[in-house]
């Protein structure tokens, strides 16, 4: 369930409530006791990506298949050019 922020128009106190989207706003302010003065505020949300997942797989600059083939190709070509240079020298 989301956390909603409310502010009282009478005393300007703020309140955070965990509630359903369909739940109504609180009737009274817990600080001053004024009725029907609580208004829902727009607040910033958070979004955090952790671990491997769709964003790592689908939005990577180089696909996984190319990463594997490039790393195996570099190691084999590096060793063959090194042995060719050793044979010449």
| Morphology | rod-shaped
From the N-terminal CA to the C-terminal CA, the straight-line distance is 71 Å
* Largest sheet data: 3 strands, antiparallel
- State the helicity in percent bands: 25-40%
Q: How many helical elements?
A: 2
Q: In what order do the strands lie side by side in the largest sheet?
A: 2-1-3
Quote the beta fraction: 15-25%
Poorly predicted segments: none
Please tally the β strands and state the result. 3
Rg over alpha carbons: 30 Å
Sequence of secondary-structure elements: EEEHH
What structural class results from the helix and strand content? alpha+beta
Report the mean per-residue pLDDT as an integer. Answer: 75
Account of the protein in words:
There is one protein chain. With 89 residues, the protein is of the alpha+beta class. The protein has a domain at 3-41. It is built from 2 helices and 3 strands. The chain has helices at 54-58, 64-88, and strands at 3-8, 14-18, 38-41. Strands 2-1-3 form a 3-stranded antiparallel β-sheet, with no helix packed on it. A hairpin with a 5-residue loop joins strand 1 (3-8) and strand 2. The protein is rod-shaped.
Quickly describe the structure:
Helices cover 34% and strands 17% of the residues. It is of the alpha+beta class and 89 residues long.
List its salient traits:
single chain, 89 residues, alpha+beta, 3-stranded antiparallel beta sheet, 3 strands, 34% helix
Give a topology summary.
Elements: E1 3-8, E2 14-18, E3 38-41, H1 54-58, H2 64-88
Antiparallel strand pairs: 1-2, 1-3
């Amino acid at each position: 369930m989301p956390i909603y922020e409310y502010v009282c128009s009478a005393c300007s106190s703020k309140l955070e409530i965990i509630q359903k989207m369909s739940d109504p706003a609180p009737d009274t302010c817990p600080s001053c006791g004024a009725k029907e003065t609580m208004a829902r505020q727009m607040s910033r949300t958070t979004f955090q990506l952790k671990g491997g997942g769709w964003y790592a797989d689908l939005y990577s600059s180089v696909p996984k298949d190319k990463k594997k083939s490039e790393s195996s190709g570099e190691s084999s070509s590096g060793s063959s050019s090194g042995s060719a240079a050793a044979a010449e020298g």
